[in-house]
Every structure is written in structure tokens, then in C-alpha cells.
Design goal:
Elements (H helix, E strand, L loop, with lengths): L2 E6 L3 H15 L4 E2 L8 E6 L4 H17 L4 E6 H5 L1 H5 L4 E6 L35 E4 L1 E2 L10 H5 L3 E2 L2 H13 L4 E5 L16 H16 L4 E4 L9 H9 L6 E7 L3 H6 L7 H11 L7 E8 L6 H13 L6 E4 L17 H26 L5 E5 L5 E4 L4 E4 L10 E10 L2 E6 L5
Parallel strand pairs: 1-2, 1-3, 3-4, 4-5, 6-9, 9-10, 11-12, 12-13, 16-18
Antiparallel strand pairs: 7-8, 14-15, 14-17, 15-16, 17-18
Helix pairs in contact: 11-12
Length: 429
């Protein structure tokens, strides 16, 4: 009997696809093990978004081989798509499966799906999940081609999952005991463009609301992984404002606060100020909300004045956390050849300043949560760690005796090292 171990680098979509492959292998009598040293096969699902992601991949493969030289290592994912020969030469690697062919692995470690058999949307699906919060993949790929981004080269053009399939998976996972679902895609702005009737992402959210809110409002919830400012329309406001399932939290693929930098990034289709205006309107429905953003510093040609506009935008937005990255050149992207390269120390210094601003806003937000009478905490592990509806990390003062995946009503007590310490309210589940 074959034993296997999985390791995932990168995004939530990778996490989802790894879980789908693991379920498929287990259905073929293979046994998943937690310890890679006990595995016959090790599946590494890779990321290629940054140079650091590729470095982490190489390091992981070498570590797996050092600790278990008898195991065969299969590398798949985005890095496998763009650098297959280099990865095949790493010690212990027996197979490299590019992102475009990843669905082959659903037929087993040696699976091979011929081109005519490939469906429009790769048939990844899950019935369970190794984490307390379940990712639900609704879209893949990207047709936009931002100048800095390698994803269109690794995952191809945008494809959408049929809404009925999404609905069925949420129902299946509810039945399996999950109570939080993260609606995830590579570019949710493109959702539905290839489906009959051309629904958009907000139509999908509204459909899930109609299907599940009556039975599950207050007992389960949806979370949206990441949206662009260009998606923050009147329709978005209507859907979010009426929802009883969506967590009051958004994550923006923002990248910069300067219109000229956004244009150079290939993201001139939205105004950064529009995000500020939308959040002001959303306060009528979500007086308290979590808000995160992806931000890049030191993009080619970015001046100090342009970076200051990003700082100004972040001061104006009600940010509660942020993911800040110094720009990283990716071979094969248009930005890699742009003039005006910003020195790496300057990129890092700007990132540090931006992270400091975001950290102050996060700290103020966590203190504000202490004034609320209640937080709804999704329990993530037996040690009492969890996450609130606002995407704030929480920890129970004393383990509540609730199983992971439970949604518990709790009272915030204090903030300890960036974590809200809570205690369960009576009758809190």
C-alpha cells in the first residue's frame, strides 16, 4: 500500500487543489501520512509568484529528499509550469506536472489525461478539508495580464466553475460539519464571463445566499477571499448589504495608491479612491468590518511622491491588516523589462514604512473590538485558537470544549500580542 504526504506552497487555490488530489489518491487505496519521513511519495504543490516562493520550493524539495531519500517527490503547480527542467533536476524528484496538467494527478500519481479529455473547468472538488475553514474554488486562471504577474503564464486564461457545482460543494461541506467557507479564485473579477448568461461574482454570492441563508444564517458563514476595487459596484453594495452569510470583511487586491503606478502595472481600470468611497458607503451595513489589502512597493518607476500616495490611501482606508510585498522581478513578465528599476533597499524600506502604518491601524482595530459585546469565533484547533467574523485572530481564555469548526459566540476580553483573547458566552454555539 502506497503512503503519501502533501505539502502546499502559495495560495488558497493551491491548498484546495492539494486537498482534492489527496482525496483522489486516498480513494485509490493510498494512505496519507502527516510525517513526510514515512511517505513513499511526497507531493509538493508549488507557487511561482515571487522569487522567494521559488526559493522556498527548492529548499522544501531538498529538505524532503534529505529526510527521506527513498521517497519519490512529485512537483506540481505554478513553478512546475514555468521551470519544469530545473525542478526535474532536483534530488528525489521523479515527476514534474505543470499547472496545465495538474488534473492528471486526480487519476493517481501516474495519471495521464489526454488533451481531448480535458474539461473546461478542471474537475477538482472536495468532500472534506484538513483545516477548520474550507476553501471553495469558484474560478481559476486570469485573462488580465498585469505587467508584474506571472500567473496568466502559469494558470492560463480565466475559467469559471458552474454555480450549481459551487452550490453542491457548499452543501456537501456543510453536511461534513464545516461552518466557514472561503470563496476563492485567482481573479474573481473574471468570474462568470465564460458561463451561460454571463453572471458575475456577486450573482454567485446572491445565489448562495438564497440557497443557504434561511437554514444557516448565524450558524455558518461565507468569506470572500480577494476582490479588486473595480468590483466594488452598486451591485456589490446591494448584495453585501443584504447578506446574512457573508462575513463583514473584505480583502482588496489594491497594489498601489497611485494611478500612474497602477497604469504601469496594467491595472488602470480602477481608481484607488473608489475603494475609499465604497468603504464609506459599506459602513451603513457593516459599521464594524475587517479590511485587508495586497500592496506592492518599489514597482519600476515608482517615485517617492507616488509611494506617498499609497501611504495616503492606506491612511484613508479602514485597513485592519495588510500583505505588503517589495516588488520582485519575474522573468517572462513585461514589468521585468520596464525602465526605472527601484533599488532593492529602497523597495524594502518603503515596504517597512507601509507595514508600520498597517500595523498601527491593526492595533487600533483590535482594541476597538474590545468594545463589542460579542464576537463570532470559528474554532480552528483544540487549543482554543480561532478567527472572528472580522478576520481577527482569537484565542479562548480557557479552551471552550468546542471541537474545531465550531462557530462560538464569545466576549472579547483583551488583546495579547495581536490576538484577541475571548471567553465563550453562555449558550454560545
Amino acid at each position: 500500500m502506497t503512503t503519501f504526504h502533501t505539502a502546499t506552497l502559495g495560495c488558497k487555490i493551491n491548498q484546495y487543489e492539494t486537498r482534492s488530489i489527496a482525496e483522489a489518491w486516498a480513494g485509490r487505496d493510498a494512505v496519507e501520512v502527516d510525517d513526510p519521513r514515512a511517505a513513499d511519495l511526497i507531493l509538493v504543490n508549488s507557487c511561482a509568484v515571487t522569487a522567494n516562493a521559488v526559493a522556498d520550493l527548492r529548499q522544501a524539495v531538498r529538505r524532503f529528499h534529505r529526510d527521506n531519500p527513498e521517497a519519490g517527490i512529485i512537483v506540481t503547480g505554478c513553478a512546475a509550469q514555468v521551470m519544469p527542467d530545473e525542478l526535474a533536476a532536483l534530488p528525489g524528484v521523479v515527476r514534474v506536472v505543470g499547472q496545465a496538467d495538474k488534473a492528471q494527478l486526480l487519476d493517481g500519481p501516474e495519471g495521464n489525461v489526454t488533451a481531448p479529455d480535458k474539461p473546461r473547468f478542471a474537475p477538482f472538488s472536495i468532500s472534506g478539508y484538513g483545516r477548520a475553514r474550507a476553501v471553495v474554488k469558484v474560478q481559476d486562471g486570469c485573462s488580465h495580464f498585469c505587467t508584474y504577474c506571472i500567473v496568466p503564464l502559469t494558470r492560463g486564461r480565466s475559467v469559471s466553475r458552474d454555480m450549481a457545482e459551487v452550490e453542491a460543494e457548499v452543501a456537501r461541506l456543510l453536511g461534513a460539519g464545516f461552518r466557514e467557507f472561503i470563496l476563492s479564485g485567482i481573479n474573481l473579477r473574471h468570474f462568470g464571463r465564460d458561463l451561460a448568461g454571463k453572471p458575475d461574482f456577486w450573482d454567485l454570492v446572491a445565489r448562495l445566499e438564497k440557497s443557504f441563508a434561511l437554514d444557516w444564517a448565524g450558524r455558518a458563514r461565507l468569506r470572500i477571499s480577494s476582490v479588486e476595487p473595480g468590483q466594488l459596484t452598486d451591485k456589490a453594495l446591494d448584495v453585501l448589504g443584504a447578506s446574512r452569510l457573508v462575513c463583514p470583511q473584505l480583502h482588496l487586491s489594491l497594489q498601489s495608491g497611485d494611478p500612474e503606478v497602477l497604469k504601469a502595472m496594467g491595472r488602470g481600470h480602477y481608481s484607488p479612491q473608489s475603494a475609499v468611497e465604497f468603504m464609506e458607503r459599506l459602513k451603513a451595513f457593516w459599521p464594524v468590518m475587517g479590511l485587508g489589502a495586497d500592496l506592492i512597493t518599489g514597482f519600476p518607476g515608482e517615485t517617492e511622491a507616488q509611494f506617498e500616495r499609497t501611504l495616503e490611501l492606506c491612511r484613508a482606508l479602514p485597513l485592519t491588516y495588510g500583505h505588503v510585498f517589495p516588488y520582485s522581478e519575474r522573468p517572462g513578465t513585461r514589468a521585468a523589462d520596464l525602465p526605472g528599476a527601484v533599488d532593492v533597499p529602497v523597495r524594502k524600506e518603503r515596504a517597512a514604512r507601509l507595514r508600520k502604518l498597517v500595523a498601527r491601524k491593526k492595533s487600533a482595530f483590535l482594541k476597538r473590538l474590545l468594545d463589542l459585546p460579542r464576537l463570532d469565533v470559528l474554532v480552528q484547533d483544540e487549543r482554543g485558537r480561532g478567527v472572528s467574523q472580522y478576520y481577527a485572530a482569537c484565542r479562548f481564555e480557557d479552551a471552550p470544549g468546542c471541537a474545531p469548526r465550531s462557530l462560538v459566540r464569545a466576549h472579547p476580553v483583551r488583546v495579547d500580542k495581536g490576538v484577541v483573547v475571548v471567553e465563550p458566552l453562555e449558550g454560545g454555539e
